[in-house]
Amino acid sequence: MTRDLDPSTVVVHAGRPERVPDAPVGESPVFSSTYVAGGDRGYGRFGNDAWTALEETLGQLEGGRGLAFASGMAAAAAIMDLVPVGGRVVAPEHAYSGVLALLDQQTATGRLTVERVNVADTEGVARAVAGADLLWIESPTNPAMEVADIPALAAAGHTAGATVVVDNTFATPLLQQPLRLGADVVMHSATKFIAGHSDVILGAVVTADDELRSAIELRRRSLGAIPGSMDAWLALRGLRTLALRLERAQSNAAFLAERLLQHPKVSRVRYPGLPDDPGHDRAAAQMSGFGAILSVELGGDAAAAQKVCESTELWVHATSLGGVESMLERRRRWPIEVPTIPEDLIRLSVGIEHPDDLWSDLEQALSSST
Ligand SMILES: *Cc1c(COP(=O)(O)O)cnc(C)c1O
């Protein structure tokens, strides 16, 4: 080929079996707990062809080598385990609540110390990262939609000698490649956009650093946080259509963000694609699109926001995101959500339905609140 392939082509073709006569076109799940002695693989906890295909595809997209995990949290836990006992982690004030809860647990047992920062405040993060072992970044953040300056934070983290990790779940490997922006490790909840159909829990790590990769792979083996072959295959099958799904979901999200901004019952729309959003310029500089998640505040109490979530007919009232079906929820309905997330904040994961149908259902649900 005379040109570098576009990521929307790579996502379709990477990680496929070699094209020899009668080879299958795509990888299949392999249901074997062990392998005949004499080869490199040995045992089902050490490798599986379906993982490898998914890992190669994610690796090519992100610019590193992938590792599949049983869940996004399993991937996050394996990365956190790299921090030495008594080590220091700098993490976002707002980020996926499960990751923050994991850090709280590790602080409570004395394993780590954690300093929480606003990832949008580049200078604040640079100050906090001095002496840290690991800088955890999420961008855009779940569900506050703040945007971190990844190149600047990666540089600050490296000056301080910290390993820089980016949770790239919201952006997906198609819209943002943190390794190319200077990060050491990328983590995904592949449960979300990568698998894309709300039918599998899966995680992934990608790094271009072989030493880090071996250390993380060793943890996958020893902590046993391995995905099932069928789940890895489902995620791979979902991933093949990510470019198309995102194209539609993103244009739906942009359309809905504009509509919501005009709606009298909406007091704030958080979406980096809006020109007035505080993260807009940064997101435009480091992402090739603004994604399909947005958050809205209604300016009322929790009950009114809850009523809206319970009044939709098309939008699914459920947690999670990144599926083909649009979903919404009030994040503070979860006791572990960070208290500085407003009580009336609703996170919307925009799917691939027709935008007019999505809007008409939201309008109908908004009119139910007083
Ligand atoms: C869902 C999510 C996770 C956790 O992933 P699981 O696959 O549910 O374990 C981590 N980070 C972000 C940003 C998420 O949305």
UniProtKB/TrEMBL annotation:
Cofactor (UniProt): pyridoxal 5'-phosphate
Family to which the UniProt record says this protein belongs: Belongs to the trans-sulfuration enzymes family.
Keyword Oxidoreductase included in the entry's annotation: no
Single biological process term from Gene Ontology: cysteine biosynthetic process via cystathionine
Catalytic reaction annotation: L-methionine + H2O = methanethiol + 2-oxobutanoate + NH4(+); L-homocysteine + H2O = 2-oxobutanoate + hydrogen sulfide + NH4(+) + H(+)
Matches recorded under Pfam families: Cys_Met_Meta_PP (PF01053)
EC number: 4.4.1.2
Enzyme class: lyase
Gene Ontology cellular-component terms listed: cytoplasm
Residues with N6-(pyridoxal phosphate)lysine modification: K192
Protein name: homocysteine desulfhydrase
Organism: Kribbella shirazensis
One of the record's GO molecular function terms: pyridoxal phosphate binding
Keywords: Pyridoxal phosphate, Transferase
Superkingdom field: Bacteria
Gene3D superfamilies referenced in this protein's UniProt entry, alphabetically: Aspartate Aminotransferase, domain 1, Type I PLP-dependent aspartate aminotransferase-like (Major domain)
InterPro entries, per database record: Cys/Met-Metab_PyrdxlP-dep_enz, Cys_met_metab_PP, PyrdxlP-dep_Trfase, PyrdxlP-dep_Trfase_major, PyrdxlP-dep_Trfase_small
